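Please fill in the sequence for the structure shown.

STRUCTURE ENCODING:
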């Protein structure tokens, strides 16, 4: 048999084997692994007042999850060039302390990156729009209107809706001071915040339009609602960008408890992200909270 004949038969044999084993078809690529995103709601300064959800408990939760990166609810102006919270924010007992302290302590221990995911120009927006001044005036108008209504028509449906809003705020405050992290990060808590925001941004502004002299409250609530939605959309987009960078990894997202429900809503349909609750993957001895130190 000639040498060229042997080569031809060898190639033919390989091609036949390839086809028989199914390799002639286009191979099915494995599904891209999703990035696991754990969003945890925090209490800001109230961590100091709640022993079941103290800064040490928050730190223990983050450390136990061993994330590949931590996302902090901070603007670019709140971090150094390496993404770490500025020195003044890393002091546990100072302004902005508990979340930044917990995140930075764990990040340094695990050697992982911290990423700011809030609006990069957050502070400039607050200043430019006179956000806090408008908020103060809006709250004063609401207090004046509700007090007048309670006096003049205490049995009206409008008063009952105001009471619903007050009950939601009381429920939130109660939980913030007494509940552990698993309750703060639950559908029950998220539902309370949903109700509070719906009443504040949507229902009460419509009701107050019936009462002359309170037009500014309704106008300001439209502004606050738009700002709230834009800010959370930016935050969600920044989480998505981080998830793309850390494909198949675990990201720990630290955010104020009122942002949790809307961020989950904005991310739930993202195909590259798997949303998980911290208590779904954490050891039972950390789940219940307590003033645990690590």
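FILLED IN BY: designer on duty
SEQUENCE:
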């Amino acid at each position: 048999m000639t040498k060229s004949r042997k080569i031809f038969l060898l190639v033919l044999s390989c091609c036949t084997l390839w086809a028989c084993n199914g390799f002639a078809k286009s191979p099915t690529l494995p599904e891209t692994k999703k990035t696991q995103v754990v969003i945890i709601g925090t209490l800001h300064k109230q961590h100091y007042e709640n022993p079941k959800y103290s800064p040490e408990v928050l730190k223990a939760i983050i450390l136990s999850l061993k994330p590949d990166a931590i996302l902090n609810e901070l603007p670019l102006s709140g971090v150094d060039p390496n993404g770490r919270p500025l020195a003044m924010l890393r002091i546990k007992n100072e302004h902005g302390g508990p979340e930044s302290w917990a995140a930075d302590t764990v990040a340094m221990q695990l050697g992982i990156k911290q990423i700011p995911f809030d609006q990069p120009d957050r502070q400039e927006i607050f200043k430019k729009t006179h956000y806090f001044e408008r908020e103060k005036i809006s709250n004063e108008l609401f207090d004046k209107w509700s007090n007048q209504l309670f006096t003049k028509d205490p049995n009206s449906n409008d008063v009952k809706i105001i009471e619903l809003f007050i009950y939601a705020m009381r429920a939130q405050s109660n939980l913030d001071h007494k509940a552990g992290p698993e309750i703060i990060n639950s559908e029950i808590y998220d539902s309370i915040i949903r109700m509070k925001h719906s009443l504040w941004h949507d229902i009460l502004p419509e009701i107050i339009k019936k009462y002359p002299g309170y037009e500014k409250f309704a106008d300001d609530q439209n502004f606050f609602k738009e700002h709230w939605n834009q800010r959370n959309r930016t935050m969600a987009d920044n989480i998505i960008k981080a998830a793309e960078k850390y494909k198949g990894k675990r990201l720990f997202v630290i955010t104020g408890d009122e942002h949790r429900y809307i961020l989950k809503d904005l991310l739930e349909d993202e195909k590259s992200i798997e949303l998980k609750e911290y208590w779904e993957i954490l050891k039972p001895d950390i789940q219940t909270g307590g003033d645990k130190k690590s």
